[in-house]
Amino acid sequence: MSTIWLVVIVTGVATLALKATGPLLLGGKPLPERVTGVVSLLGPALLAALVAIGTFAEGQKLVIDARVLGVGAAAIAIRLRAPVLAVVVLAAAVTAAARTLSG
Amino acid sequence: MSDASDARSYRHGVRAVVPLAIAVFGFGLSYGVLSRAAGMGDVAPIVMSATTFAGSAQFAAASVLGAGGSAATAILAAVMLNARYLPIGVTVAPWLEGNAWSRLLHAHLTVDESWAVASEGHGRWNPRVLIAAGAGIWVAWVGGTVGGVVFGNAIGDPNRLGLDAAFPALFLALLAPQVRDARPGAAPGVRVAGNVPLIAAVIGAAIALILTPFTPAGVPIVAAGAACVLGLRRRPA
Known about the structure:
- The complex is a heterodimer of chains A (103) and B (237).
- Chain A has 103 residues and is mainly alpha-helical.
- Chain A has 2 domains: 1-29; 30-101, no CATH class.
- Helices cover 76% and strands 4% of the residues of chain A.
- Chain A contains 5 helices and 2 strands.
- In chain A, strand 1 (57-58) and strand 2 (61-62) form a beta hairpin.
- Chain A is extended.
- Chain A starts with a helix and ends with a helix.
- Chain B is globular and about 45 Å long.
- Chain B is mostly helical.
- The chains are: A mainly alpha (103), B mainly alpha (237).
- At the A-B interface, helix 1, helix 2, helix 3, strand 2 and helix 4 of A face helix 1, helix 2, helix 3, helix 4 and helix 5 of B.
């Protein structure tokens, strides 16, 4: 089997296993209040990490580049309650414009 | 729950996910282009989008393979990026109905975007919104990948189009309502000192940035989940 197909198959199976562990093993069992308090914070913590990594990480380096302007513009648009699509398009447009202007 | 209410939930899921699906289609295009450029060929990227169905993990796997990394490294990077789906699956599990196959389908269609759209706050999720939104994202992601593979060379450099910055902007838009709605005392019977989700978000981002230079891609995102221990501070009023 080629390297590529090995990656495709193993990653696919592992991802489904990660996703299905809760729904198949826990079923309809409600989580204890304390656990709900903890897992309800996973969303904000992981989303913020994805924002930070997506804005500043380039491989294992932290850099400040055109993406900061795009995400900054997105933050202002979100503050003004703009629709998600407008936020995303604005971020891409500002970043692309900054790259064009900086050569 | 009544059929009318079910239909309303499905429609809500589809409506809420349309702007996200358009953005995801754009990411799918860039994934198709980049994975093809990384030497994954035409069919493997499309199969991976349909099965793994997780953008950041697929981008990580493609870049590791493109840089000449081993299968094991590519798998590890992708699986670590997807480790968040273990707790995410646990959060939606109590709200799923039906047999094992139905729950497996819900699990497969649970991605960051459908999970965020289906959240009703206070640790509740709507399974009908989840599956409708997840199906919309899946069609957009796979369709975008096909488009990216087919039109690969015509699109050019996706970063030139600023699509890489659209990614964090999308997650910021998903994060904002989660930290905005969490006012002190928002949940009945629970007293919260300050905006705990916002504090968790700041700590999560800090952990991710601090670890980035020292750990493989994906680890900082998983480690950021440690900020959730703040949830233990909640006490019944």
